[in-house]
Write a structure and sequence with these properties.
This protein is an alpha+beta fold. It has helices at residues 16-32, 56-61, 63-73, 81-84, 94-106, 111-123, 132-141, 146-153, 156-172, 197-204; strands spanning 5-11, 39-44, 178-183, 186-191.
């Protein structure tokens, strides 16, 4: 058995490509979650960190990218996502990343499902996940104690975890989503949204035997 091998999924809750890739990463997690040879880790990035100011024109500018994501992955952006989220006036990754990491702290086995749920809230339901109140509502809907998550978001542990994840994303310089394999001190970038389960297996399996 290979010890200490980690598959790292680098994502950002505001990333449209991560929304498209959500179904694929869920298949990957389902395939490897009980495999003792490989530890799965979700790391939040900082696509919109520092936060940016937006407006209606920003949403319209992103429609061609969204159309490409829809074509490749077969997902559907909500019709009013572009006005209600992208055109809301403010986009920030820090708070949703902190909420994901709060869930990771209290229920690590649920973090992939929760990250997918938070992404759906933005892209499918046009909810402004740059706001802490919205993220906490989604956490409550997912069965978490809202006050516990609120407390964890402001805790030193989650703040440090989020800072470390943002630093990791900046240091590796890869886009979102990205998959990495870490074995000891070695970190290998496996690829991004083009990686399906079959391609990932072909890359990962030889390193696990």
């Amino acid at each position: 058995m290979t010890a200490g091998v980690q598959l790292i999924y680098l994502m950002d809750p505001h990333c449209g490509w991560c929304f498209g890739y959500s179904g694929t990463i869920q298949k990957i997690v389902a395939h490897y979650q009980d495999d003792e040879r490989l530890k799965l880790s979700l790391v939040t990035g900082g696509l919109m960190h520092p936060a940016i100011a937006t407006g209606p024109e920003f949403g319209e500018e992103k429609r061609p990218i969204a159309a490409r994501v829809e074509q490749i992955f077969g997902v559907k952006f909500a019709d009013d996502y572009f006005s209600k989220v992208l055109g809301s006036g403010h986009l920030g990754s820090l708070l949703p990343c902190q909420v994901i990491n709060a869930v990771k702290t209290t229920a690590p086995e649920a973090v992939f499902d929760f990250a997918a749920r938070l992404i759906d809230a933005a892209f499918k339901e046009s909810r402004d996940i740059s706001k802490l109140s919205v993220c906490l509502d989604v956490a409550g809907e997912a069965g978490f104690d809202i006050e516990e998550i609120r407390s964890l978001v402001s805790s030193p542990e989650v703040k440090t975890m989020t800072e470390d994840s943002l630093y990791f994303a900046k240091q590796v310089g890869a886009g979102f989503p990205s998959l990495f394999l870490r074995s000891g001190d070695s970190l290998t970038h496996l690829g991004g949204s083009e990686l399906d389960l079959k391609a990932l297996e072909a890359s990962v399996e030889p390193r696990l035997t």
